[in-house]
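Sanity check

After download, print the first record. It should look like this:
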Amino acid sequence: MSLIQSTFDRSVIVRSADAEVVGRPPTRVRLLADASATDGALSTIRVTLDKGADGAKPHHHAGSAEMFYVLDGTVQVLSGTDVVTAERGDLIVVPARLSHAFGAARGKSADLLIVIAPGVERFGYSGSSNASRSERSRPKVSARCRSSTTRSSRSARRGTRREADGLSARRAAGSSSKAAAASSPR
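Expected structure tokens:
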């Protein structure tokens, strides 16, 4: 039984040379398929992160799960309040509405395949303000953080930002306590 009722009836083929690339080092995003290409079934991107680079700030998708498959390197994913380190061949799936963020592990680079299902159009990583069908009726908060504007969701985002700041602090702590103090939230 499929939860996604898509009507596209042809394979979607995207050649690497034809995929739009957004950003430049240290974070490059290759837009492979938007919801419009798959009739909303999924969206997929490939994210390449240089050593220690951030991928996305804390955000959540109101009606879509997000899958991270590590093609190469090491990534850290903030999933709710947990920080998960994943390496080549590892898979992480974050459910809809759970706040998450990701970046290359300190001193490591990462290459990721990310799939969002159901799909969204030009989702937050590209800086566009288009939303998926399931998110169109919700107010836009920012290009990088699509979420409702209720008081509880704002509190949840603040808490997740503190967790992400903590992730940055933990990364810095490995080099020296002075570096950790400089990167901790103020």
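If your output differs, re-run the checksum step. Summary of this record's structure: The two ends are 49 Å apart (CA to CA).
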